[in-house]
Design a protein that fits this description.
mainly beta; 13 strands; two-stranded antiparallel ribbon; Lipocalin
Length: 182
């Protein structure tokens, strides 16, 4: 249960209300949460290499309805909100929050908010890889997606998207390769 878990983790504690010292209420545990901004900054350091402009190749496999094809796009990422987010920069220059670290849960959050909608989560980097998973809607189709990133260098990375199939296995959706534009 949510509230029980918040108290168990030490995020909240019982204490007296500031507006009524005779009333016991739930309070944020400032000793605990005071350490979280530094943890978030530390973890976001692992993502700062994304800032810049990237050429992406999206390889889509054939299905019963389409032949295999590849699509090319340009992506721009910026560090925003004081270093708390990696934002996608739209063609019009708008910055959309895209990746952050939630120090409360100890997870990276990958936020999709246009065309595809959802929040994928990851416990973090394992060497040069990070895996995000979660429920999402991709252009009107609901699915559970797993996105596995591999960082080749500060100038090259790739990810593979897979969807959970009805039998519980993961099936390939597409593959992306990114190269920094200079």
């Amino acid at each position: 249960m949510l509230m029980e878990e918040l108290f168990r983790r030490g995020i909240m504690r019982m204490g007296y209300a500031t507006d009524d010292p005779s009333r016991l209420t739930g309070l944020f545990n400032l000793e605990h949460i005071g350490t979280l901004p530094a943890l978030r900054r530390e973890q976001m350091q692992r993502m700062l290499w994304l800032e810049g402009e990237w050429t992406a190749v999206n390889k889509v496999p054939s299905t019963a309805m389409n032949p295999a094809y590849a699509d090319r796009q340009v992506y721009r990422y910026r560090v925003c909100d004081g270093g708390n987010w990696i934002c996608l920069v739209t063609r019009g220059g708008e910055q959309r929050p895209h990746i952050t670290y939630d120090a409360f849960s100890g997870q990276f959050m990958y936020v999709l908010s246009e065309g595809a909608f959802g929040v994928l989560r990851s416990p973090g980097w394992d060497g040069n890889s990070i895996v995000f998973t979660g429920e999402m809607t991709m252009i009107g189709v609901n699915c559970v997606l797993r996105q596995t990133w591999t960082k080749e260098s500060d100038d090259a990375f790739a990810f593979v998207n897979e969807e959970r199939l009805a039998d519980g296995r993961w099936g390939l959706v597409d593959e992306w390769e990114f190269r920094r534009r200079f």
